[in-house]
Amino acid sequence: MASLALLGCGAAQAQIYKCVSPNGGIEYTDVNRGSHCKSMDLPGAVIPAPPRRQAAPARGNVPAPVSTPGDFPRVDSAEQRARDADRRGILEDELKSETQKLAELRKEFNNGEPERRGDERNYAKYLDRVAGMRDSISRSEKNIEALKREIANIR
Fold first, then answer.
1. pTM, entire model
2. Cα separation of 79 and 83, whole Å?
3. 56 lies in a domain?
4. 48, 69 in Cβ contact below 8 A?
5. Is residue 59 part of a domain?
């Protein structure tokens, strides 16, 4: 990587030296550091600059949407309605199961005071389980919100 950067310097008319140390290490530099450094002849080692990016279009100049090609496969409206109905059914099933899961989690959570288990003699274990339950409830609530948004977005 460093050698590529130094090769770019060579295009700017700087002399590049390859220095091999007595232990075999190789270093490329623009400074001659003694007899273990040899000048490199790099004709045509020009690395072009990347092309300039075009400025973002002005606010008033919104590019026209790209139309689909004529041979692009299309789905007729009856098929699309059937697909949407299938999707809605799947999402509603997921919503129903997620709602049941949330109800069970809240019941077990018992307003922040779930029953202690026999293996939780250490209070820290109990607190860890309660924190995990809070996280599960939060995650389930977010899943329900996302499912409701998806169902609302179906045509």
1. 0.50
2. 6
3. no
4. no
5. no
